[in-house]
Specification:
The protein is an all-alpha fold. About 75% of the residues lie in helices and about 0% in strands. It starts with 5 loop residues before the first helix and ends in a 7-residue tail after the last helix.
Length: about 130
């Protein structure tokens, strides 16, 4: 027989009680990343120009800013999940907690910066002709 209780094996939980939950989130964010990156690449390919003004006008639309924010959230969450597994598997001792703290601060700081940039452009871009 395997390790754990009968109920734990039925629920798909290992000794850490995370099991299928963590695995499922990785798969969901991977699928979201795929769909949102395909949208991003198709949107970029359809732009008439790739200069700052064109991208600013493009990102000022809510139809663009919302999927872009979702893409940033999904990518950074997926990044965190993947590195969490790496840290849990290969870092042992007290350093594990320090690395998890660094990872969490890093992901939150960069994700918040990216979201701030998207929202700043979306809310402050001029939608009309240049003045």
């Amino acid at each position: 027989m395997g390790s754990g209780t009968e109920l734990g094996r039925v629920r798909g939980l290992g000794s850490s009680k995370e099991g299928a939950h963590h695995w499922w989130h990785q798969r969901l964010t991977a699928a979201a990343n795929l769909v949102l990156m395909l949208w991003f690449l198709a949107s970029m390919a359809r732009l008439p120009a790739h200069d700052f003004a064109a991208l600013q006008l493009w990102l000022s639309s809510a139809w663009v800013a919302v999927p872009m924010a979702l893409l940033v959230i999904s990518v950074f969450y997926h990044f965190r999940l993947g590195l969490q597994v790496l840290i849990e598997d290969y870092v042992h001792g007290a350093g594990r907690y320090a690395w998890m703290l660094v990872l969490n601060f890093f992901v939150v700081a960069l994700g918040a910066t990216a979201l701030f940039a998207i929202l700043k452009i979306a809310f402050t871009a001029q939608t009309g002709a240049a003045s």
